[in-house]
Amino acid sequence: MTSALQDYHQFVHWIHAPENAASEDARRIANIVLQHFAGVAGTSRQRNQRSNLLIGLMRDTLATTSPVLPAIPPLPPGGDWKWHKLKRLSVGPFRGFRYPEPFDLHERITLFYGPNGSGKTSLCEALEFALLGTVDECDMKRIAAARYLSNHHEGRYLPPELRAVTAQGQAIPVVADSDAYRFCFIEKNRIDAFSRIAAKPAGEKTELIAALFGMDQFNEFVGHFNDSMEGLLTLLASKQVELTAKRGALSQDHQTVANEAASLARQAQIESAYAASVQPGMTYTDLLAAIGSETNPGRLQELDALLNQPPAFIFGISSTELLQAFHAADAAQKVLVDVTAELAARTYDVSYQDLYNAVLGLQHIAGDHCPACDTPLAGEHRVVHNPYEKATAGLAGLNVLKEIQGRHYQAIKARNAASEALRVKLSAFALRVGATIESPHAVVRYLANPGFDLQRDWWIDGYRTDGSMPHLANQTVTWAQQLEQQDTQSALANAERSKLITERDRLNQARVDVGAHGIARQRLAQAVLDAQTRIAGFEQANAALISAAADEANAILRDRRINTAYDQFLALLRRYKTQLPGTLMAGLNSLALELYNEFNVRDLDADKLAGLSLPVTGEGRIGLCFRGKPNVSVDALQILSEGHVRCLGLAILLAKALKIGAPVVVFDDAINAIDHEHRQGIRETIFESERFAGTQLLVTCHSNEFMKDVQNRVPNESWTSYVFRHHNGNYQPRVLGNVAPQTYLLNARAAIDRGDARTALAESRQALEMLTDKLWRWMGKFDMGTLSLKIAGSGAEPTLRGLCEAMLARLNKAPDFVHPDKPVVLQSLGLILGQPEQSLVWTYLNKGTHEEADRDDFDDALVEQIVGQLEALNGLRLKGR
């Protein structure tokens, strides 16, 4: 495929052609750029990056570089790809994918379909990033890549992992290469933009054609050459001017020496003003004393010693909250005790409740007998009271017990919550004071292990005391009060410490500023000394400049040669760029024409293309010749409808992909850019013909009908599908892999396998409708598409059986028509039509399988035979002439 380097190779051939009259130096520059192409291409015109690099190269090698055409390797073959097809993709977090999502891409065709906003575009951008290393939409919207590619809810992104397999079956990671894989993508936006090319101004039209036809990389390379190098070359005697100026600068040195005293006085005034700004009334000498030093410490060192002590510790314990936690636990425990006592008072009710539940639980076993005595519930010798009715009535009378049990459950939950809240408070207290069970103090040991037990009122243990001193819970609250008082004192101490820190920071800043003032004094002294030195030895100090001025004349001659050669080289390079589209279009006209005609298979033959001429410049027009008038050339954008222009744009893009032998083509919603009228031809051309049999196709589309048609017309073993659905609240697209296909015959076969003949016939009806449409179009290719059909009346349509009979009759009446697929067609149609029209099978095939009661059963073997014949028809390629 073409890239900037390969296009430049062709330019080097072109500039060395005698008819282009390039000077030897212009050809030398072309050869120099070729030798250092990677480095030159990596620069831009910003801040003269490219010109600076080229000037260095030309100054070093222009005189010694040969002006003849160098040996240039031929372009690599179109099929020279590192891998055969994509294997697997993992995406996330990336754009709309919040979490990693794997995709199996091993089939030739992978279909992704779902509604807008379900994640299909994020998937295509992941493929674009993995293959190209960038996402065009990110650059177009001028959003930083890290922000554009990040998932909004995760705040980050991971580069997608894309793996492929080589022709030998070896799995390898895909390395991004924008030059190699750019034409693997066909986006809806590019087709939309191409359909509006006629309304674009010339400048934008040139860029659009460049992007569509593959010139954008070379155009970008050429665009980064600066228009001129004059400002960077030695074209004027600047060294001589500088030398003259320096000789005149000696007067400035004399003035510097004469003004030494005045300069020192100004510096002293600046220093005094600064000392007063640090502290009113302070002199500069006082400021130096306060700053001090290691040998003569001052106020700053004193502050450092004070502030090196750690700040006062704040415990942050609230005695009020701790006491409230104890009270809340006590209150919850009291409620639980009261409800437990109330429940205990109804012990017998609990027993009756268990008895009644047990009796009712045996009802399904004992049936019409008493579960206890086995006495019948009905008859001459029966029980006095029905035990199940009595148990049911008894349970209804125990609703009060159920209410008490509910309050008992809630009381346990409330007591456990208050218990946990108290435990958390005590644990936080213990952590702040570093309590351990080895402490000699009882209250500390209590904090380290208060005896937490979720099943009882464990904190009551802390209330026990022998009377000699307050119980441990009380001591804990008292200790918390003491720590609160200590925190108050610590806060005051830390506030005073803050004042000292402010003073220290002010003196530290003063120390830095005093250093700057010292440097200023040193510079004044050095300036005077330098001026005195220059005055004493001007010739010796400027010996290098004097020598440079002497060499400058030779440099001017060298750089003027470079400037002249560069101007001619750049003019020739830009002229070649305007002619490049014609070179890049070589071989695309005929292929794009064939694809366009295949897309528009339903058009009249006279309306199909006989000739196609793509533009060679941005201002050029797309020329067409129709088969109806092959000698008349017209402007495509003036004659074609928007739908046909979109087909032409898609044909050009696919022609480019075929021309370079791209192993994969990614359709990013491109099918939806084409109107419904042309989708049949596009589907047949891309998915059903042999033209793309060796190309892996990844298709995103929100047209479920288009996906259904692809699945029914392409063998199942060559495609797989994914369904995208909107997220269910976790902001991750729902991706359904290996979903049930919409393929009629696959579904019919599955129905037969599970013994469902009705569903098999329902799918067979739709399959037969699809296949008759396919057969009819096939017969039309051999001028046998005119059929005699019977209809029931005005506005009615022929039955499906009637259509099958008409096609079978037409084929039987054409003994001279020979085709490899004809015997299978005759056999299959004959067997299907061999069933009587009034049979149960044709009743369903003709009008569909509706819900009807009391129908006879289907003959499973017959239904399976019909499905087998439809599968045989579906397996035919039904090629034309």
Describe the structure.
- The protein has 881 residues and is of the alpha/beta class.
- Among the domains are: 4-76 and 550-582, no CATH class; 85-221 and 645-737, P-loop containing nucleotide triphosphate hydrolases (Rossmann fold), CATH 3.40.50.300; 744-874.
- 57% of the residues lie in helices and 7% in strands.
- Strand 10 (664-668), helix 28 and strand 11 form a beta-alpha-beta unit.
Write down the Rg: 46 Å
How would a textbook summarize the main sheet?
6 strands, mixed
Q: How confident overall, as mean pLDDT?
A: 80
- The CATH class assignment of the domain at 85-221 and 645-737 is Alpha Beta
Uncertain parts: 75-79
The largest beta-sheet arranges its strands as 6-10-11-3-12-13
Q: Which range best describes the helical content: under 10%, 10-25%, 25-40%, 40-55%, 55-70% or over 70%?
A: 55-70%
Q: Would you report the number of β strands?
A: 13
CATH structural architecture of the domain at 85-221 and 645-737: 3-Layer(aba) Sandwich
Keywords:
881 residues, alpha/beta, Rossmann fold, 6-stranded mixed sheet, 4-stranded antiparallel sheet, 13 strands
Question: What is the element layout, followed by pairings?
Answer:
Layout: H1 4-15, H2 24-35, H3 37-41, H4 49-61, E1 85-91, E2 101-104, E3 109-113, H5 120-132, H6 136-140, H7 145-149, E4 161-165, E5 171-173, H8 178-181, E6 185-187, H9 188-195, H10 202-213, H11 216-223, H12 238-258, H13 260-278, H14 284-291, H15 299-307, H16 319-344, H17 347-361, H18 363-366, H19 387-396, H20 399-433, H21 442-448, H22 472-536, H23 538-541, H24 543-584, H25 588-599, E7 609-613, E8 623-626, E9 629-635, H26 636-639, H27 642-659, E10 664-668, H28 679-688, E11 696-701, H29 704-713, E12 719-725, E13 734-737, H30 744-753, H31 757-780, H32 800-812, H33 822-833, H34 840-847, H35 860-874
Parallel strand pairs: 3-11, 3-12, 6-10, 10-11
Antiparallel strand pairs: 1-2, 1-4, 4-5, 7-8, 8-9, 12-13
